[in-house]
Design goal:
CATH architecture of the largest domain: Alpha-Beta Barrel
Distance between the termini: 30 Å
Shape: globular
CATH class of the largest domain: Alpha Beta
CATH topology of the largest domain: TIM Barrel
Structural class: alpha/beta
Radius of gyration: 24 Å
């Protein structure tokens, strides 16, 4: 009982009403800004292909090239026969999950008439892929182009290529659901705002739905991590996209070089890279925006010893990224697909039994109240379920119900 004369529940109700009014706008803003993890599939990689080397057969050709590398230089070091058979099946079924036709560093500077022709040819090839239907020769679930940046020297060329590419593609096919534009070397919030306006104009001119064009912000300059006034700029960049941000991608080598790191030490595993990616990870948390790690430029080419060494390095870097919560990275060579999928599959199968057991125990505790040896919080239970869902999406885990559906409140708190 409350003390005599004290307002008790009436005061609590009055205070709650005042607090609700004070926080209503803040609640709405946070709900909009942080909707929670996305339910959309995130590809485990992005395969970068220079625009002048891209054709409708590229995804299948990459898969076949990876299989030939395994035939010639295999087995993959550190992986058993069963794991390698599963990798081969993936390469035959879905060799590329995310394809990016590159008009930036992988393509270089060309005369306007040459890049114009390349933009139209690449768009036509993508349209052919889109219309091919299901199977190894079809378009990957995710695709798009990397345009040149909005830096003064190349911004006109970047916008021109994007416009020609979209015009040509849309004359022959509908925009695929997983289409993405990669905006490289972003160094200011105003560049992001300019890209939003560019997308709005293109949507209007080409009859696309508002918000249909989405883009990835590629972070490869220190100025994107720390602005001139000392503020972190990645979160404001996300806000400036007005819902169009499909991902944050880390650019290993441009970023490292900008910091003066010697070429021999530029790596996804360098402390400077870890710092930048941690900033991206925090800025994207609970926004539903995917974060991608970068690439290694040590390619699996040459004799068998060199190829196996590159596979071992790449697999280790992929595993390192996965353990740190980066579920996507870049691949620059077809043979990297083998080590990408081997390391990714092992990451998910290694933790499968424990994840299932912990989720089952968590659900039992919810239903019965019995104590378990690990007192997982609702957020951890959601992370365990997301881990299993990612494993199913990439083919590491069989497509079967991995756990009973979590109750609606399981992700809260």
């Amino acid at each position: 009982m409350h003390p005599p004369g004290a307002p008790g529940p009436e005061l609590a109700a009055e205070l709650s009403g005042r607090i609700e009014a004070l926080l209503a706008e803040d609640d709405a803003e946070r709900a909009c800004r942080y909707p929670g993890p996305s339910s959309e599939r995130q590809p485990v990689h992005t395969a970068y292909v220079p625009a002048d080397r891209f054709s409708a057969g590229t995804p299948e050709q990459w898969g076949q090239a990876a299989l030939r590398a395994l035939d010639e230089h295999g087995p993959l070091p550190g992986f058993d026969e069963a794991e390698q058979l599963r990798v081969r099946a993936k390469l035959a079924r879905e060799p590329v999950e995310d394809l990016r036709i590159d008009f930036e560093d992988g393509y270089g500077l060309r005369p306007d008439e040459i890049e114009d022709a390349a933009a139209r040819a690449a768009a036509t090839a993508l349209a052919e892929l889109i219309s091919a239907g299901a199977g190894a020769g079809a378009a990957p679930p995710f695709s798009g182009l990397r345009m040149k940046s909005l830096e003064p020297a190349v911004r006109h060329r970047g916008v021109r290529t994007l416009t020609l590419f979209l015009q040509t593609l849309l004359e022959q096919a509908a925009l695929p659901a997983g289409f993405r534009i990669t905006l490289p070397k972003v160094s200011s919030v105003r560049q992001v705002q300019a890209m939003v306006e560019c997308c709005q104009v293109l949507e209007s001119r080409f009859g696309l739905a508002a918000g249909q064009l989405r883009f990835e912000i590629q972070i490869e300059t220190p100025q994107a991590i720390l602005g001139p006034d000392g503020t972190a700029l990645v979160a404001p960049m996300i806000t400036a996209t007005a819902g169009r941000c499909a991902g944050l991608h880390y650019g290993t080598y441009d970023y490292s070089a900008s910091l003066g790191i010697a070429a021999a030490f530029q790596s996804m595993a360098h402390p400077a890279a870890d710092h930048a990616k941690a900033v991206l990870q925090v800025a994207a948390a609970e926004t539903g925006i995917a974060v991608s790690d970068g690439s290694t430029n040590v390619l699996p080419v040459g004799d068998t010893a060199a190829v196996r060494a590159a596979w071992q390095l790449h697999a280790g870097l992929v595993r390192r990224s996965l353990e740190r919560g980066f579920y996507q990275g870049w691949d620059l060579h077809p043979a990297q697909l083998a080590s990408r999928y081997a390391a990714t599959f092992r990451f998910f199968t290694d933790g499968l039994a424990e994840a299932r057991a912990r989720l089952a125990a968590y659900q039992a505790r919810l239903q019965t109240g019995l104590e378990t040896n690990i007192a997982d919080e609702p957020a951890t239970a959601r992370a365990l379920a997301d881990y299993l869902a990612r494993g199913v999406a990439c083919g590491a885990i069989a497509e079967e119900p991995v756990v009973e559906p979590l109750p609606p409140s399981a992700g809260a708190g």
